[in-house]
Structure formats: C-alpha cells, structure tokens
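Please fill in the sequence for the structure shown.

STRUCTURE ENCODING:
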C-alpha cells in the first residue's frame, strides 16, 4: 500500500471538452460580463426547475446575497444547523445579524424539524431567516421545515451546497417549493465545478433581481430597476449597496460543460455508494441512511465509527487511512464549537446530536473518477483500520 497513489475524499473531473470551453473563452472578447454566465444560469435553471438562477463567485457569496435580498439587517436573527461549514452561519454575521442553531437528526444529519418546533415554542424571538443545510447530497425534511417556517412567517434559504442534481419529494432540489431561495456550491470537490463558484435559484423575480444587484455593486442599467430616467446610454444607477461577487466567463463556461455531465456524475456516485453499502455492511460502522423521499446527489459518503462495536477510535482510523494515502476527511466540526462562535456565548453541549455525530464521523472517498480498484483499496484499508 505504501507505494500506491493518493486517493482524495473528493475531486473534480475535468474533460477535454471542459478545457476547450475555457480556452475558447480565453480567446474570446469577454472574460467577464459576457454570454457564458447567463448561459450557465439558464442551464442550472433548467436542471432545477427554477424560474431564476443567479450565479456568483462562491456559495458563501450566494448565501450572502440571498440574505440581503430577503432584507436581513443588523440586529436581525438567523437560525441554521451546527452540522455545516462555517459559511452557513457567517453570512448572517456579515449582515450584522445574530445567529443561533437548531440541532440535527441522527438519521440524515440535517436540521431536525422536531427540534425546530420545540425551539420556536420556547423562543422569546423568532428568526427572520431559517437556513436548513442539506448534508452530503441529501435534502433536509423540507416539507415539514417549510410548513413550520410558513406558519411562523419565517423566510427560508436552503443551503444545498452539496446537492446539485439531487431530488426531494419528486422535484429537483433547487425548485424551491418549500423555500424562498436555494443555494448551490461548485467548489472542486462538489458534484460539478466551476473551480470556485456558487449560484442561487428562486421562483421569485424580485428576489432574483435583488440578488443580481447585490452581486454587482448594486449597480444596474436595467430600466425597470433604475431609479432615474436617463437620457444618455452610458449612464447607470447604483440603487443598493452591493458587492463584487460576479462569476467570471471562464468559470461559467466550465459550469456549462460540467452541467451537461451532471446525470453521469450522480449515476457513478450512486453505483459506488451501493458498492460501499454492500462491502461495509459487516464492519462496526453506521452507514449513511437514505431518505426514501429523496434521491441524494451523494456529494459525500459519511460513515460513523460505531464505538459500541469497536475499540478503535475515529482518530486511529483516520490516521491509518491517511498513512495509507487515502484522504479521508471529517464533515463537520459543529459551528457552535468554533472559537469565534464560542466568543459569542455558545458552548460544547449546546447541540448534542451534532456533537455526537461529529465525534464519530469520517468521510471516505466518493467522486466521479473513483474506480472500483481504488474503491476496493479504500474498503480493504478501512477494514484493516477497524481490526
């Protein structure tokens, strides 16, 4: 094993067509603010069934403009799940808002609707925005979460960074039947990539218009959005305080060609996940549960070390795998345990299910370029690590 090549937990799959599309843009007149970004937005809108798609330079940026478009102000309040990357909470802080968390279920590792109802029943103040996080490619229970939010007049942003191409309750994730806005990530380890990049979908044109403004300085030449009537063709209006979150033409061109392979990417992930399901069934592990109402995009294959059935610790398994050049990872350190959020008053023990999952979690390799031979090596090494 020592001479074997490194197997990461996830990586991009770049084809010659992808490379050619980027090179074509580099030879074109537009490196930014050209035709590729709207083409990519249209492709994702078609995949998700959304009326509108707004591409930006990262999923963090997409979450930020989504919060701004929904009117989040300093002193506002956002609730999200602890089992996520810090960006899901940080965007609220960037708006000057407060953050709190709702614990997850121990089945899908997504926001627990029962915990949400209980927290709302006891809350002195309800959140302005709820950000449920879809974990590992699988949707949270959006039927219940959306209904609860609607009953309490709370706006909803789905953090679907892991989920492009997934389905929930018979619809593509991103169609927003239970939310205002849905956000995707195109980081290289995600299902498809634009190198760095993100996108927000919505069925609401005014929200799409606002997100488009906030991604580009709050500046527009759209007569429907301008505050003044202009006589000169070069004039523009700044109608909001925005940012420069634009996606480049190179990124968008890569996104277009990647999107064309989305179904193949997900089919391969499901094939490899089924092989893991069968091969790992007898090991002292808790394997990822799949909601029958969901067709996961399978961004991750997260296993939990079943500490009741093995004396091996997660750290021992992690070190064994890394020593064998298998790039396992851990998703996620609960956000409320990070030093920044500890400084705001959160403490270990506040969200016990998230902490219980984190203490056992390990993400093993799953991506389009993973071969059966490589996967067999992962399986064999994992078995050795647990003995």
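FILLED IN BY: designer on duty
SEQUENCE:
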């Amino acid at each position: 094993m020592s001479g074997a090549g490194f197997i990461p937990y996830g990586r991009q799959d770049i084809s010659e067509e992808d490379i050619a599309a980027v090179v074509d843009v580099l030879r074109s007149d537009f490196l930014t603010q050209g035709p590729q970004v709207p083409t990519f937005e249209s492709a994702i809108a078609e995949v998700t069934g959304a009326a509108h798609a707004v591409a930006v330079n990262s999923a963090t940026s997409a979450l930020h403009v989504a919060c701004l478009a929904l009117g989040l102000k300093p002193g506002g309040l956002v609730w999200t799940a602890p089992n996520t990357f810090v960006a899901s909470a940080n965007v609220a802080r960037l708006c000057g808002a407060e953050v709190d968390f709702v614990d997850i279920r121990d089945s899908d590792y997504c926001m627990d609707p029962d915990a949400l109802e209980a927290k709302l029943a006891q809350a002195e103040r309800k959140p302005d925005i709820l950000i449920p996080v879809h974990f590992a490619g699988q949707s949270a229970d959006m039927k219940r979460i959306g209904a609860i939010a609607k009953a309490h007049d709370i706006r909803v942003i789905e953090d679907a960074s892991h989920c492009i191409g997934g389905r929930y309750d018979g619809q593509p994730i991103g169609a927003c039947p239970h939310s205002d806005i849905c956000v995707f990530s195109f980081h290289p380890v995600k299902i498809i990539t634009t190198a760095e990049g993100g996108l927000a979908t919505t069925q609401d044109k005014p929200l799409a218009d606002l997100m488009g403004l906030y991604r580009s300085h709050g500046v527009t030449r759209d007569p429907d959005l301008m505050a003044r009537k202009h006589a000169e063709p070069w004039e523009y209006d700044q109608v909001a305080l925005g940012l420069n979150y634009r996606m480049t033409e190179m990124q968008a061109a890569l996104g277009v060609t990647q999107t064309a392979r989305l179904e193949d990417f997900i089919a391969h992930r499901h094939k490899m996940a089924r092989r893991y399901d069968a091969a790992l069934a007898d090991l002292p592990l808790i394997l990822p549960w799949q909601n029958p109402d969901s067709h996961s995009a399978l961004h991750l294959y997260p296993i939990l070390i079943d500490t009741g059935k093995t004396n091996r610790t997660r750290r021992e398994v992690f070190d064994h795998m890394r020593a064998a050049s298998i790039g396992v990872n851990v998703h996620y350190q609960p956000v409320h345990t990070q030093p920044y959020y500890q400084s705001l008053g959160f403490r270990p023990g506040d969200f016990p299910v998230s902490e219980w999952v984190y203490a056992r979690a390990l993400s093993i390799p799953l991506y389009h370029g993973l071969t059966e031979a490589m996967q067999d090596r992962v399986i064999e090494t994992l078995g050795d690590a647990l003995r």
